[in-house]
Amino acid sequence: MSKKRGLSAEEKKIRMLEIFHQSKDFFQLKELEKIAPKEKAITMQSVKEVVQSLVDDHLVDSEKIGTSIYFWSFPSKAKNAQKRKFLDLQTELEECAKKLKKTEDSIAVESANRVECEERTQLLLMFHDLEKKEERLKKEMQKYRDSDPEYISQLKTECRDLKMAINRWTENIFTLKSYIKNTFHIDNATIEQSFNIPADLDYME
Predict the structure, then answer these.
(1) pTM over 0.85
(2) What is the CA radius of gyration of the chain?
(3) Helices (H), 57-148
(4) Distance (Å, rounded) from C-alpha 172 to C-alpha 195?
């Protein structure tokens, strides 16, 4: 049986927020450490980290009253935080759009004022020739790649790892066949036919 997957950090934050929003109450950390594992399957050891993460994201408020720290969050808090984040992103997008427009205008001005000269033309021709030469050399190198010791070593390592993986799965299949045979008293041929297992399945040498 596969091991049950634990909650991700984001899932823990969502579930912790549900505690606040559903109760609309104020909590101390020790109270959350009792409630979260029982109601939301959040481990007690991770409660403090999750709550602090929500405070850092401005989704949960906290206040020290006397010697105790209280935490709370109402549904409107999350909506306001999302709205604030949206507005911040919108402002950032507008700033980027302004910078892009300024850069495009500068390019247009430079292009309009650019004076064609023989030296520039020759440099462009040389650049394009070098690009073609580079592409030609890359193709030539590819022909000799099969003789590259480093590449061959890499292939050997990959082949070894693949063979180990194949043999590991082959062992798993043999173990499963043995279990089915001994538990349900089914012969090999029937098992192989039922699970589309090749009769000549064997380890790789």
Answers:
(1) no
(2) 33
(3) 75-113, 118-143
(4) 14
Task: Identify any residues that bridge with 27 across adjacent strands, giving them in sequence order.
Answer: 71
Residues 6+ apart with CB under 8 A from 74: 20, 21, 24
Helix 44-56 / helix 9-23 crossing angle, nearest 10 deg: 80
Tokens found for residue 29: 């950390």
Encode the chain (205 residues) as per-residue pLDDT tens digits.
445 567 888 889 889 989 988 888 899 999 999 999 999 989 999 999 999 998 888 888 899 888 999 999 887 766 776 677 767 777 777 887 788 788 777 777 766 666 666 776 777 788 788 888 888 877 776 766 666 666 667 777 777 878 888 888 888 888 887 888 888 888 888 888 887 888 887 877 7
Q: Which two tokens stand for residue 162?
A: 């693949």
Q: Is 190 helix (H, G, I), strand (E, B) or coil?
A: helix
CB count in 10 Å sphere of residue 84: 11
